[in-house]
Design goal:
This protein has 87 residues and is mainly alpha-helical. The protein has three helices and two strands. Helix content is 79%, strand content 5%.
Length: 87
């Protein structure tokens, strides 16, 4: 139970930090320079990168599921179980 509470609180804090960062970087002060790159440009590039990584992971997972062997039919499992039990 405590583990779920810690996870929930962590997710809420992460979302607030993310919202604050995007609000500050895109609306309040978008011209702030970080390593000679505007904060708004850095946030947009980071967002696009994360979206591409998530998309690639989803496509990779779909490909992985196609390559996995399919489980046997339930009828085959039941038949094998009955044969095993008879022995």
């Amino acid at each position: 139970m405590a583990n779920k509470k810690i996870t929930g609180i962590s997710m809420i804090l992460f979302s607030f930090i993310l919202l604050f960062t995007y609000t500050f970087g895109l609306i309040i002060y978008p011209d702030l320079k970080i390593y000679d790159v505007k904060l708004s440009e850095l946030l947009m590039k980071g967002t696009i990168y994360v979206l591409i990584v998530v998309f690639a992971c989803i496509i990779g997972y779909i490909g992985y599921t196609y390559l996995k062997t399919t489980p046997p039919n339930i009828e085959e499992v039941v038949r094998e179980y009955k044969e095993y039990v008879k022995k």
